[in-house]
Specification:
- 52% of the residues lie in helices and 17% in strands.
- The chain contains six helices and five strands.
- The protein has a five-stranded mixed beta sheet.
- The longest helix is centred in the N-terminal third of the chain and has 28 residues, at 8-35.
């Protein structure tokens, strides 16, 4: 555009300089995220230089701490998170010693996407009903500024368990998905996981 060409090494040098300049800020972000009462965790794969890498995200409503790692299960850098972990049910968040003392919460955005897939791919009505119930629970929570009246909360929890127990019973009454009986349908696995 301006007739100026930059060598790749110059651009890499700019990146390194900016990275070093931002280092104190990023350390402060990391400290504040780790000290937050609730921390949302997620990871996503991407390709860099022909290799799969992982972008790990730890966030609060105001801060997001990004890390890149060569391994998906590289969570050692998350040592020191004090609050409740909100995530997508990934087993590593439960089984890793890093998170032994943390409480866990599950991300309903992930649940809603999975329920949508089950409803669309398998036509299973329970998934649509559970989607509506989760959205209703969110609406009620927001409408009541986070304090849902106890009778209503109990009713929502009861309906949640009824829907999932019926879904599990429905799947278990169907012929096996896998001729050898080892694999379960996606909806079956989801219903079992959500009942835990």
């Amino acid at each position: 555009c301006h007739g100026v060409s930059l060598a790749p090494s110059t651009i890499a040098g700019f990146g390194n300089a900016f990275s070093q300049a931002l280092s104190p800020f990023m350390e402060k972000v990391e400290q504040n995220v780790k000290a937050a009462p609730v921390v949302h965790l997620d990871e996503t794969g991407f390709r860099m230089g022909g290799k799969t890498c992982w972008l790990h995200v730890a966030s609060t409503p105001r801060l997001t701490w990004y890390r890149i790692s060569a391994k998906r299960n590289d969570v050692a850098a998350l040592v020191g998170i004090l609050g409740t972990l909100m995530h997508d049910h990934w087993k590593t968040y439960y089984s890793n010693d890093v998170f032994k003392g943390n409480a866990h919460g599950l991300c309903n955005s992930h649940h809603l996407r999975e329920l949508k897939a089950v409803a669309e791919l398998d036509g299973d009505r329970w998934a649509r009903h559970l989607q509506r119930l989760l959205r209703f629970a969110l609406h009620v929570t927001h409408a009541n500024q986070g304090v849902v009246p106890l009778p209503l909360a109990e009713r929502i929890v009861l309906l949640y368990h009824i829907l999932l127990e019926r879904a599990v019973a429905m799947y278990e009454a169907r012929p096996p998905f896998d001729p050898k009986g080892r694999a379960k349908r996606i909806g079956h696995n989801l219903a079992l996981r959500l009942l835990q």
